[in-house]
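Module 6 notes. Inverse folding takes a fixed backbone as the condition and produces residue identities as the prediction. Think of it as a translation problem where the source language is geometry and the target language is the twenty amino acids. Below is one complete input and output pair. Work through it position by position during the lab.
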């Protein structure tokens, strides 16, 4: 019998959900005892981890599990109180693969059933070279390190500006990707002057300081800026976009990060499943979820594309999916949807297109100096997905 570790003081319905998935629950009241149970049972007898996202040490437990090579790909599901984007994002930030509303026991049982067959030790080969991850905060340094490892890089770490400068100025040390705190380690421009302009670079910034950091970097090409505390898979998205810039240019429309709560279901089915979008374009979107729908089926999706929009209904076809615990593309578990624009309600499709254009304008403006921005562009207009 394989086991699932549950970090939760509320056990109502959880035992039945585990038994329905043919796994044996092991409850823990503290993060330390949860990790001890995982380590004691080992990868042969542990099938997954369920975490109450409200636990103060949930993030520490997720990081500890992900940093243990025996459990690098251990499936993690977080329990949240309500279907809200903020709650789902919190779940991803603590290292979970998916979030399930606490009372949705059928949804939890479905996820637990998907744990079977996962290779807990599977991890991408470091085939893309060496990445320098520089941040003063240990937890963030580790989180970004997991992102670059997931993308196929071998990470090395720096905690101070001096360590960063020593590394980038040593010609014998390989550097294929740089992920660096754009504020606390001082002016990034001076450091980047010693970095080959062909090296993809991601700078982190506090909320509201993104343009300042980009300006301090000299509007350098192949450079992206992201907010602190973003889920690891958002950093992963930026790495993929920078590394595949030529492929991105060949798309009909640019893919944009979008962490928006959504519900999805096979076409014609009443019952829906909650998920969180990962990215979107005019032509489609990617939904983060362990409960990925099969390729080739028609799907209905409801979501608010941004703060300025109401809930809309879209229709499309599942064109590919990524299962949890299986070696594959460097993207989170979920599935990609190609919109069937002719099947979508015209009014809803117009709202989708308008939201996309607003966010695209905001993204493009963030990448250009102020004197190059179009007249009348309002950077304070609500464009952020919710």
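Target side of the pair, the amino acids:
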């Amino acid at each position: 019998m394989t086991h699932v570790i549950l970090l939760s003081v509320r056990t109502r319905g959880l035992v039945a959900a585990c038994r329905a998935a043919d796994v044996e629950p092991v409850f823990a009241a503290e993060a330390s005892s949860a990790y001890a149970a995982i380590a004691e049972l080992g990868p042969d007898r542990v099938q997954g981890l369920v975490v109450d996202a409200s636990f103060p040490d949930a993030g520490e437990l997720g990081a500890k599990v992900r940093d243990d090579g025996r459990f690098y790909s251990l499936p993690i599901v977080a329990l949240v109180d309500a279907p809200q984007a903020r709650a789902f994002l919190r779940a991803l930030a603590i290292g979970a693969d998916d979030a399930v509303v606490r009372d949705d026991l059928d949804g939890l049982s479905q996820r637990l059933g998907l744990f079977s067959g996962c290779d807990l030790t599977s991890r991408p080969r470091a085939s893309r070279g060496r990445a320098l991850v520089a941040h003063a905060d240990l937890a963030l340094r580790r989180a970004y390190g997991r992102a670059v490892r997931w993308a196929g890089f071998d990470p090395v770490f720096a905690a101070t500006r001096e360590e960063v400068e020593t590394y980038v100025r040593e010609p014998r040390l390989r550097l294929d990707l740089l992920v660096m705190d754009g504020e606390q380690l001082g002016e990034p421009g001076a450091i980047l002057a010693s970095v080959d302009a062909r090296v993809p670079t991601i700078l982190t910034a506090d909320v509201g300081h993104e343009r300042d950091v980009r300006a301090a970097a000299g509007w350098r090409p192949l450079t992206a800026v992201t907010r602190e505390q973003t889920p690891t898979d958002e950093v992963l998205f930026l790495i993929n976009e920078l590394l595949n810039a030529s492929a991105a240019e060949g798309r009909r429309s640019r893919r944009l990060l979008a962490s928006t709560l959504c519900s999805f279901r096979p076409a014609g089915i009443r019952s829906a499943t909650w998920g969180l979008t990962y990215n979107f374009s005019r032509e489609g979107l990617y939904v983060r979820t362990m409960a990925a729908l099969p390729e080739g089926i028609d799907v209905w999706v409801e979501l608010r594309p941004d703060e300025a929009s109401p809930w809309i209904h879209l229709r499309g076809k599942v064109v590919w999916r990524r299962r949890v615990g299986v070696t594959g593309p460097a993207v989170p578990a979920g599935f990609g949807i190609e919109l069937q624009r002719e099947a979508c309600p015209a009014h809803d499709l117009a709202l989708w297109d308008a939201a996309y254009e607003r966010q695209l304008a905001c993204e493009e403006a963030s990448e250009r100096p102020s004197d190059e921005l179009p007249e009348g562009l309002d950077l304070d207009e609500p464009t952020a997905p919710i």
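Reference fact for the lab report: The chain has a mean pLDDT of 89.
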